[in-house]
Amino acid sequence: MELDIQCEEMSPSRWAELLSTMKSCKTIRLDDCNLSSSSCEDLSSIINMNPSLTELKLNNNELGDEGIEYLCKGLLMPSCSLQKLWLQNCNLTSASCETLRSVLSAQPSLTELHVGDNKLGTAGVKVLCQGMMNPNCKLQKLQLEYCELTADIVEALNAALQSKPTLKELSLSNNTLGDTAVKQLCWGLVEASCNLELLHLENCGITSDSCREISAVLSNKSSLIDLSVGDNKIGDSGLALLCQGLMHPNCKIQKLWLWDCDLTSASCKDLSRLISTKETLTEISLIDNNLRDSGMEMLCQALKDPKSKLQELWVRECGLTTACCKAVSSALSVNKHLKVLHIGENKLGDAGVELMCEGLLHPNCNIQSLWLGNCDLTAACCATLATVMATKQCLTELDLSYNSLEDEGIRKICEALRNPSCNVQQLILYDIFWSSEVDDELRALEESKPEVKIIS
């Protein structure tokens, strides 16, 4: 049994009702439910009396250190079988880390700990690392985003990594680490016996200076399949170093996030080589990089390579215009694997989207999710988009937000949605102005086709 409630104010009667239900739940999720430390006393009892409970998610509640102390009393009970614990943004400080260390040391069932968005600090996380080093700890996933960590944390993390071969996911994004600390972390990862699968280092103050060391991790850890270094100023020179590791035969990368990394079209030669030859790569995010049309054309050429297995390409806000749309269309007409294309916030215009639709309508194209928000579109391209919606049964999600489609354009899109062969299940239309008459048509359409969700 699963209890999944979000954003609900808990009255005493409602809480009492839920507590009764929780006694038999395998999963309890209570994000944004205005819970407090007193709620944790009750939850501690539930953990103790419900040995089938394996996942507890309490994100965005003001639990505080006192609440965690109550909660951990239940977590330390022999009857506890909890595997996943989510405590993101719960107003915790380093004081909670001693209590959590006890749980890590004593509870071998716990495999996931998510404590991001809490002011744990370097001193607090050092205490957590001591718990990780206990032989009883079998932690596989550790999430420490926005925890106010500094470079001083790396020595403790490396010691924990050395002793913890079970660890598969480590997220340190949005902490002020810097190049020196990231280099040290990478040296530790290369030496450690852990089989890390996910490493997230977004917004960690990384430059090209530490990319050689990250590249070495990619070359040495064939287990690493998910790397995110977005929101770091690595630049074209850093990307060239990363690609040395990414192209290594040992590297089996599947998901690569490089958003807002100060890349230009100069990086697209290396990226194209990666897309066309690294058959494990299925998802790449290049959002908010100045790739421009020339860079996009190189990427499209790579997508046409038979060895490319890319399924998701994110190129929002990349300085693209109508000029690259013929190349995009050509790639869509050849590549059978691409399922998600996020190309919004580029000045494609009606003419560009008309060109893209030629590729979208090709039998080889299997696009499921297409994002065209804020692309300078008008009603002029909506008839062609409507044809795509009615023809391509694989298309299930379409974003047209922040475009001046007006009544005429929205009516054409609605007409396509009414077509029995249209499989679009989610239509996103943020910040588009239409009349009350069209609004009534949209509401009627949702009623007649409940499987369709229109988000505006």
Automatic annotation (TrEMBL):
<dbReference type="InterPro" id="IPR050637">
    <property type="entry name" value="NLRP_innate_immun_reg"/>
</dbReference>
<keyword id="KW-0007">Acetylation</keyword>
<dbReference type="InterPro" id="IPR041302">
    <property type="entry name" value="LRR_RI_cap"/>
</dbReference>
<keyword id="KW-0539">Nucleus</keyword>
<dbReference type="InterPro" id="IPR001611">
    <property type="entry name" value="Leu-rich_rpt"/>
</dbReference>
<keyword id="KW-0677">Repeat</keyword>
<protein>
    <recommendedName>
        <fullName>Ribonuclease inhibitor</fullName>
    </recommendedName>
</protein>
<dbReference type="GO" id="GO:0005737">
    <property type="term" value="C:cytoplasm"/>
</dbReference>
<keyword id="KW-0597">Phosphoprotein</keyword>
<comment type="subunit">
    <text>Forms high-affinity heterodimers with RNASE1, ANG and RNASE2.</text>
</comment>
<dbReference type="Pfam" id="PF18779">
    <property type="entry name" value="LRR_RI_capping"/>
</dbReference>
<keyword id="KW-0433">Leucine-rich repeat</keyword>
<dbReference type="InterPro" id="IPR032675">
    <property type="entry name" value="LRR_dom_sf"/>
</dbReference>
<keyword id="KW-0963">Cytoplasm</keyword>
<dbReference type="Pfam" id="PF13516">
    <property type="entry name" value="LRR_6"/>
</dbReference>
<dbReference type="GO" id="GO:0005634">
    <property type="term" value="C:nucleus"/>
</dbReference>
<comment type="function">
    <text>Ribonuclease inhibitor which inhibits RNASE1, RNASE2 and angiogenin (ANG). May play a role in redox homeostasis. Required to inhibit the cytotoxic tRNA ribonuclease activity of ANG in the cytoplasm in absence of stress. Relocates to the nucleus in response to stress, relieving inhibition of ANG in the cytoplasm, and inhibiting the angiogenic activity of ANG in the nucleus.</text>
</comment>
